[in-house]
User: Fold APA family basic amino acid/polyamine antiporter from Saccharopolyspora phatthalungensis.
Amino acid sequence: MAQQVESSDRLASGAGALPLALGGMLGVGVFVGPAPAAAAAGPWLPFGMLVALVAVACSASATAHQSVVYPGPGAAYACVRARMGVLPSRIGASAYLAGQVAAMAAIARVVGEFFLPAAAPQVASLALVLVVLSATVGLRIRGGAAWIWLTLTVAVLGLVVVTCFAIEPVPPIPSEPRLADSAVGIPGAAGVLFFAFLGFERLTMPAVEQDRYTWSAMKRGTVVSLVALAVVLSVVTAALVYQLGWSRLALSPTPIREVLTAAAAADLAPLVGVGAAVALLPVLLGALESFRSTALALVLDRDLPRVLGRTSSAGTPYLLDVTAGVAAAVVAILVEPVPAMAVASCCLLVYYAFVNAGSRLLLAEDHTWPMRAACLGMGLSVVLAMSMPISAMLATLVVVVIGPLATGGLSRRWS
Assistant:
């Protein structure tokens, strides 16, 4: 394993590692995530954030090691298939693809809520069409463009934070319902906030060779991105709580927009809304790229029809992109952002439980902290998935039952 890690040092290194990962994380989880997390844990939310960070760090370590041994699209899926067998890999892959579709739906719906709340489903569908077309022609936001978009996201969040702390909050209404002050909701909050950290796999598990960095650059970029995201999420949550309070934050479907009204800064809402909507488009594109990576691995293994791997003149699998976009548009029209985000989190937690288990077997001979981190990540992923809302768990159960049956039926192979 050490030799394989050392061989990755021959890859290119650069400052692009940071926006590649952080640009995929600063999304819906930061703009919307604090609300359902507050509903789950109330003042105990910071502990949920810490648990989510630990679970994500373990999963990032697992995928980083897997991408070194299994380079190419769907590295984690390939590792699980090789180390655990066909059925676990199909369960994990089904959960991952469904989770990415739900994530795309949540992101697109939030874009609609920010850009034109009265027609959010329609705007979400248009945003998905735009992203699918962009992906099909080969658009990839990297380098300077990634830094510009990352700066826009930080600027939007910074404006909201400064506004919240600059204006004295309105005293809470005496009849306002109070949240239960209990630590029981910590796992539920952690499960929701796990979604906020997703995007690290764009760096630790790149789909194309151009996104591969040296081991040291990948490790440094991942650590810095996770810490930076934790800081940003903490500051944004603190600003929202300062202005809205825990109870009002828990009831807010779009806290970033509502907090401006509460702070008597409603004039800024259109500017922040458009800025947030534009800032989320690269995140939506990143989610589609992540879907494409694992889906291509299933196409190569004949678990999905080979026709889906057909490429456009730009070399992109346009049928896969269109399939993901249509599925996400249907979900975005039918499901609100928070429930979609909960389903995405639950599906992806199931996926990362298998990923960490596969990494545990991969690193079985290395009695070092990465192997122990994989064990911890597997356990945390299971616990957090079981702490999600019942509706999200039921949707995930349907996925992990139907997905393997469908892929097995298509390939006509069961082992």
Summary: Residues 1-14 have pLDDT under 50 and may be disordered.
